[in-house]
């Protein structure tokens, strides 16, 4: 179903998100949810139908991200493929990539022409002009050290002047006390490094690290890695969209 596999993919029995995506495509059951747990908050639900939205139902920040894409585009962590499908309908040259084989197979069934499965860290195919990582897709780097490593790795599959387009959030508001101060242990790891795990019905996934990075911190890491950063939009609760363009040094 996919063009090529890079590195490892998730086994179906360990893939709650991919299982939810596949189940919704097969059943169109609007009540399906993937339950998300973390080490810092109460459990939350991701409604699976949300992952299948059309461009007209996407928030403004996502549509702006699609507008900024150019050239050959790679949608990283594409999930159900809604962003890639929207770009394809616009006539763009887009490839969707996900570590979930179930998600990749669903994207092909939805009509996405170019789908590759695997881990972005093992990608070694043709280069792209735009890497799109929405719904806090940059979070997959896990930690600030992982962010530094990824920004360097991304250079190997970007064309000259290529760009990364993604959103993230500064979650410091979650640590705000009633008096306006912030309850953060400055000796601990960066407060935006969160550990998650997911469930869909009886399918439980492994724990994984996820990063929410504030804009000032991202700005510093981008400059160090050799990117020019542009803040495209800021939304509620410090949610923002950026473009990182590779410098022609």
UniProtKB/TrEMBL annotation:
Transmembrane segments: none annotated. It comes from the Bacteria. Residues 73-162 form the Methyltransferase domain. It holds the Pfam family Methyltransf_25. InterPro entries: Methyltransf_25, SAM-dependent_MTases_sf. This is Methyltransferase domain-containing protein. It comes from Flammeovirga pacifica.
């Amino acid at each position: 179903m996919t063009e090529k596999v890079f590195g490892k993919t998730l086994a179906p029995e360990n893939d709650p998100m991919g299982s939810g995506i596949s189940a919704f495509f097969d059943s169109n059951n609007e009540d399906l949810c993937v339950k998300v747990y973390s080490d810092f908050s109460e459990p939350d639900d991701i409604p699976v139908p949300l992952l299948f939205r059309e461009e007209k139902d996407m928030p403004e920040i996502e549509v702006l991200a699609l507008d900024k894409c150019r050239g050959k585009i790679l949608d990283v962590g594409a999930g159900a493929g809604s962003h890639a499908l929207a770009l394809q309908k616009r006539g763009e040259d887009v490839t969707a990539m996900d570590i979930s084989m179930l998600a990749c197979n669903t994207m092909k069934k939805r009509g996405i022409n170019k789908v590759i499965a695997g881990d972005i860290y093992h990608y070694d195919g043709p280069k792209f002009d735009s890497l799109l990582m929405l719904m806090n897709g940059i979070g997959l780097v896990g930690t600030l050290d992982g962010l530094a490593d990824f920004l360097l790795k991304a250079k190997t599959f970007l064309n000259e002047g290529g760009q990364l387009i993604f959103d993230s959030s500064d979650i410091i508001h979650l640590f705000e006390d009633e008096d306006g101060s912030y309850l953060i242990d400055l000796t601990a790891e960066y407060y935006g490094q969160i550990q998650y795990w997911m469930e869909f019905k009886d399918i439980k996934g492994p724990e994984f690290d996820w990063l929410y990075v504030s804009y000032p911190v991202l700005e510093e890491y981008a400059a160090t890695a050799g990117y020019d950063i542009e803040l495209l939009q800021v939304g509620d609760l410090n949610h923002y969209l950026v473009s990182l363009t590779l410098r022609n040094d």
